[in-house]
Amino acid sequence: MRSPSLLSLLSLITSSLASPSSPAPNLHSRDATTNLNLSLPQHPLSINLKPQQTSTRDLVSLDGLWSFAIDNTTNSTATPWTSPLPKGLECPVPASYNDIFIDRNIHDHVGWAYYQRTVAIPRGWSGQRYFVRLEAATHHGRVYVNDDLVAEHVGGYTPFEADVTDRVNPGESFRLTIGVNNELTHETIPPGTVEVSEYTGRKVQTYLHDFYNYAGLARSVWLYSVPVEQYIEDITVVPDVDWDEDAETGIVHYTVDTSNGTGSIEITIADEEGNTVTTASGANGTITIPSVHLWQPGSAYLYTFTARILSTSTDPPRVVDTYTLPLGIRTIAIKDAQILLNNAPIYLTGFGKHEDSPIRGKGHDTAYLVHDFELLHWIGANSFRTSHYPYAEEVMEYADRHGILVIDETPAVGLAYSIGGGVSSADSPSTFTPEGINNNTRAAHAQALRELVARDKNHPSVIMWSVANEPASDEEGARAYFEPLATLARELDPAGRPITFANLGQATYATDTISDLFDVLCLNRYFGWYSFTGDLDSAGIALKEELTGWSETYPGKPIIISEYGADTLAGLHSVMGLIWSEEFQIEYLDVYHGVFDTFDNVVGEHVWNFADFQTKEGIQRVDGNKKGVFTRERRPKGAAYALKKRWSGLNNTGLGTE
Q1: Which residue in 161, 266, 393, 470 is the catalytic one?
Q2: Where are the domain boundaries for CATH 3.20.20.80 in the chain?
Q3: Does the annotation mark 483 as catalytic?
Q4: Is residue 491 annotated as part of the catalytic site, yes or no?
Q5: What is the residue-averaged pLDDT of the chain?
Q6: pLDDT band for position 420 (cuts 50, 70, 90)
Q7: Under CATH, to which class is 342-652 assigned?
Q8: Mean pLDDT of 190-200
Q9: Signal sequence: where (predicted)?
Q10: For 232-327, CATH number?
Q11: Tell me, what's the pLDDT at 425?
């Protein structure tokens, strides 16, 4: 069977986004916004609720060792495997495959790779529907049941699934093969370029983002069941608070979507002790919780929201399906250049992070998850940005339970041809062109945004959506590209969270063309490193001038310094504070913090980066980006102790949250 190519699939998505009554906007015209269809019509999602084990659902983990092989052909349509993979290689799931094997051909592979195992459908699943669900496949995934392609998805960081009910009977086994393609083009998110070497005939991948393009099944794979009669497909909860003088009342607007409308819906909300505090009936409605316990950073009170489908054909009614969600009651708002969490100003302390660790690459690891959050708590951080892609949903759930605030970002990084690996290029081509970042790219970007919000809309830890990281927002075509996406982001989230993007340093307050579309200014600035290198006196002056310009241009918008930092080699010391030394990193941060403290509208500081991380090979990096305040193995540099002292002081003075 011949499967659609990546380009044709993206073209299909593009056609579904285009308005039937108006032409596609011209992205390389600065005046192209006049005839835009700003609504970007909804494209169907292949995302449902995260699988869970309940009294009506079963869940089987498919994590572990899978047979593995790479496809060395340059055929972009990739013939499916219709027989067992060659013996020899086994690859762990979840994990990126690049660093697992001692094989440069696998490490550098560009194209399709295949995972395979035998899966048995439990005999007890008669009368159930059952699905194979992938939490992520970087960046293009295909699912085969025996010889047949049953599901396909483009986008490396959000889940998709295949309904296999009609292909395999309970008690039977099948060959499950998953194809994963890591190729990036100018029409994918993130973008890149694939060329074939004239010398070796091998594909070579280039890209503009400064982190390694790890590939494979980096997150879990599941087999799960739901009742065939009727099941809960989705739940949306929107918390609010009535700020009464005596005791706050929690408000929960909810919607429950089901596979059909035959049963009745019952809602229960329980407190952390398991006591029922309120109930309701119906597929949508509003519930109040008197004397509510608010979800706060560092004090993450979670209620349990339970939805049940009841069959009224029996007496008493029979439970057909049930699903539970953690529920945090909190509000988030922007007012007077401040971020208000539960009606009080909040100052964000924390980092840009990466899903990155030795050997596993971007593979989700629960030990690293817990240890990283312990380090966030130790250092006094109350927040992080999911730079530069959605993280595993287990990370979001852990943030919910432990009171860490999250700026949730799409995979839209590398939308500026003027930079590559963090280094500017003066003679680079224009970004927004038919041959570059174009309408098809934006279609993929819109779909990535839809899937991010659909997955993470119920997490109380998520306080903001970041639409992109460091796009060329000063270039012609940027506004035509981003205005529909900003509108879409507001339409997608029923909770109305603020939206932002991380601004590129060369897109100053005088040249940026899109910041008025967003609620919060997130600025990535590297004075003293990429410019004024080593000259911290000049860096401080330049930073203050920049923040003054943004404050005067956008007086009502809060500012978060979403990236600032300097590469630092752990163990390198200098009595003169020379660059790359631990002393320089500390002095660099001190200069920035001194400037931040003079601006009331600077409401957050996210150091780049939490930990050192791997990047593509090149003469600009030696074994990765070294801007972490922890090493890649999570050992602290001197700057970690300096940040701990500062952030503890900010929290103690009420600017942060205990």
Answers
A1: 470
A2: 342-652
A3: no
A4: no
A5: 89
A6: low
A7: alpha beta
A8: 91
A9: 1-18
A10: 2.60.40.10
A11: 54
